[in-house]
Amino acid sequence: MRASVISSALVAALVGYGSTIALVLSAAAAVGATSDQTASWVLAVCLAKAAGSALLSAWKRVPVVLAWSTPGAALVAATQGITMAEAVGAFVLAGLLIALTGAIKPLGRAVAQIPDGVAAGMLAGVLLPFCLKGAGAAQTLPALVFPMIAIFLLVRLKNPALAVLAALALGVALAFGLGQATLPDLALPLPRVTFIAPDLRMDVLLGLGLPLYLVTMASQNLPGFATLRAHGFEPPVRAGLVMTGGLSALSGLFGAHTTSMAAITAAICMGPDTLPDPAQRWKAGVVYAGFWALLGLFSPAILSVLTALPPALIVALVALALLGPLMGALSGAFTAPATRFAATVTLAVTASGVAAFGIGAAFWGLLAGLLVRGIDRLRP
Questions:
Q1: What is the spatial distance between Cα 337 and Cα 79, in angstroms, rounded to a whole number?
Q2: Which end of the chain is less crowded, N or C, counting CB atoms within 10 A of the terminal residue's CB?
Q3: Stronger pLDDT, 46 or 363, i.e. the higher one
Q4: Whole-number percent of the chain with pLDDT over 90
Q5: Inter-residue contact 128 to 326 (CB < 8 Å)
Q6: What is the pLDDT of residues 260-309, one digit of tens each?
Q7: pLDDT confidence of residue 219
């Protein structure tokens, strides 16, 4: 095995884990997950990503790199008044819908009818409130957050994919070095998954499960397939959707949110620097899967360190991690002139956080955007 394959897979795994693990912790806190359920969440999603990446890469002979849904985690973190069991019901529904999209062509065509601008507007509305909290975190802990911002901006000039990971490393070092956090007991508890019986509440299924499915499809799976195509590979669309959806539904029973195709981290494993021969680059997906399995097994120790950090530091890290996805969502929302107003309405309603009949803002934002777009189409 070439060293370049191992290094590319390792960097991709560390970037994917380190840049957004704080967001996953925020999502777990938002639905009232216990420490055991949070550990199960992280372990289950890591193992799902490892299994899917290895199986699809070896089967289709293309470097398939899976990720947890970062916008999906942001959507979960923005919810209020939902229990962990109710969230699990939404996770399972989203996974089943993804699998059905790959298995049933008419469903895939129906999802494709949603205007890209409206879908991007919903995603931007989900991400914007988290990014706005970054300034408040800097005001609360300036000695920690401002150096994190500085290293983020500097590293981003050279390698944007590593910028958030560098900010996390510096933030952890400063927090413990300045006495803002106490180093926990670094014993290695045995990792385990915890089964959580889903509570199928209709308003949660509509307000969280359906938007989770849509943002995972629009902001992760479709760009992930496009990344494969851009590197000269034929993406396994149907197999990828059935696999990631099935794994998401299964891991959802142990607390994990959706698993999806990766885009940014996937590009790290797909270039000629990984392997000169494109026909052999699928091996990077298998090695990547091995690193994710290891991250899952060591997640209890990693989580014990992260949960000891000041809350404001985690808020700042989440804000930095979501700036890139927010930029992409805003660009997508306002690219097409015909859907700009509908996208604006979608963004505004979603970002407002309004909830009606127990259904979250993402659903109402999407509904408002589709309604406005429908009215706009009546214009001569």
A1: 31
A2: C
A3: 46
A4: 41
A5: yes
A6: 998 777 877 887 878 888 888 899 999 999 999 999 988 888 888 888 88
A7: 79
Distance CA 137, CA 130 (A): 11
Q: Which of 342, 344, 325 is nearest to 115 (CA)?
A: 342
Distance CA 380, CA 376 (A): 9
Taking CB atoms within 8 Å and a gap of at least 24, the contacts of 310-313 are 310/141, 310/144, 310/175, 310/180, 310/181, 312/136, 312/137, 312/140, 312/141, 312/144, 312/145, 313/137, 313/141, 313/144, 313/145, 313/148, 313/171, 313/175, 313/180
User: Is 347 contained in some domain?
Assistant: no
Strands (E), 11-117: 66-68
Looking at the structure of the chain, the number of domains it has is 1
Residue 63 is assigned to a structural domain of this protein: yes
Residue-number span of the structural domain to which 290 is assigned: 3-142+185-331
- Tell me the whole-structure pTM to 2 decimals: 0.84
Domain assignment present for 225:
yes
Residues sharing a CB contact under 8 Å with residue 96, sequence separation 6 or more, in sequence order:
245, 249
Task: Tell me what pLDDT residue 11 has.
Answer: 82
